Amino acid sequence: MPAMKTDFHAYPLLFLLLILSAVLPGTAVCRAETNVFENFSKGLGGFEDTYNFTVKEGCCYFKGDGSNSASFIFWKGGTNPSASDAPLPEHSNYFKDFNVSATVSFESGSSNVGYGFFLCFQKNAVSGTDDYIQFLIAGAGYYYIFKIQGGKPAEALVPWKKSDFVQKAGENRLSVIKAENLFSFYLNETKVEELSVEGFSGGAMGLTMSNLINSHFDNFAVAVTALYTKAQKDKAVSDAQAAKDAIISGLNAEIAGMYTQEQMDAAIGKYDPSRDGIVGLEEAIHALRQCVK
């Protein structure tokens, strides 16, 4: 075999083989994010104007009317919000997969009633009634997760549960992450529950407060993640793997015709991917040069 050139670029096939084996990804899943953020510096922002919610001092304050009921405030912002409380997927206040969070603060009233998020609010196609999930906390240091679906009574997904992660006095940061039918619930940045809930593909969201309390909330944020469908993900993974296999197979065939097995083993044995490939690859090429001199 003739001596090889000493130029680094004389070994493009070996270079590609090593790099592709180490770093060619096995997935090809893309995502796009848009953001909603309300800090009430300029009024209600995208929230609807509701009689017992008012903005002052950069927060949205709620004053309960003393009744044994709850009040809702919907976020209806964006470029194309729905006029009704139950948006369609094309509306800017329809949320499918998301990460929503807000800071809520208890001020006065009963410490045994709930306040927090309602999520995936939508009209049930069969019953025509409202479907939604709620994630609530109470001033006594408890949290509660339940769903209303198909006109049936409320079903507790997690009954009232005492938690040290609920701050009895002061602020609490509530967060929920939804990915398809998987919901993850957080209290003050700590995950407290992860649930699979069927039948809630998306919908409206906002805050709900018992009318037996006074409270306020701030820094409402939503990161909306537009994911490909599972079928699209599976096809992307399959296509990427097929492309990788075809490239590696072709390179193997070409390199096998250029060097002996002993020469390739000696070179590849010098390659150390834990060193980011750069130094290890140079060592591999140097070893191959030595083999063919």
Tell me about this structure.
With 293 residues, the protein is α+β, with helices and mostly antiparallel strands. The protein has four helices and 14 strands. Strand 10 and strand 11 (182-187) form a beta hairpin.
What is the name of the CATH topology of the domain at 31-228? Answer: Jelly Rolls
CATH homologous superfamily designation of the domain at 31-228: Exo-inulinase, domain 1
Percentage of β-strand residues: 35-45%
Following the backbone from N to C, one meets helices and strands in this order, namely HEEEEEEEEEEEEEEHHH
The mean pLDDT is 83
In helices, the fraction of residues equals: 10-25%
Assembly state: single chain
- C-alpha Rg (nearest Å): 29 Å
Report the sheet with the most strands, covering strand number, pairing sense and barrel closure: 8 strands, antiparallel
- Give the number of helices: 4
Query: Which word captures the global form?
Result: elongated
Write the layout of secondary structure elements.
Elements (H helix, E strand, L loop, with lengths): L11 H12 L7 E8 L14 E4 L2 E5 L6 E5 L23 E12 L4 E10 L6 E9 L3 E7 L6 E8 L8 E9 L2 E6 L2 E7 L7 E7 L2 E15 L2 H27 L4 H8 L9 H15 L1
Antiparallel strand pairs: 1-14, 2-3, 3-14, 4-13, 5-10, 5-14, 6-7, 6-13, 7-8, 8-9, 10-11, 11-12
Helix pairs in contact: 1-2, 3-4
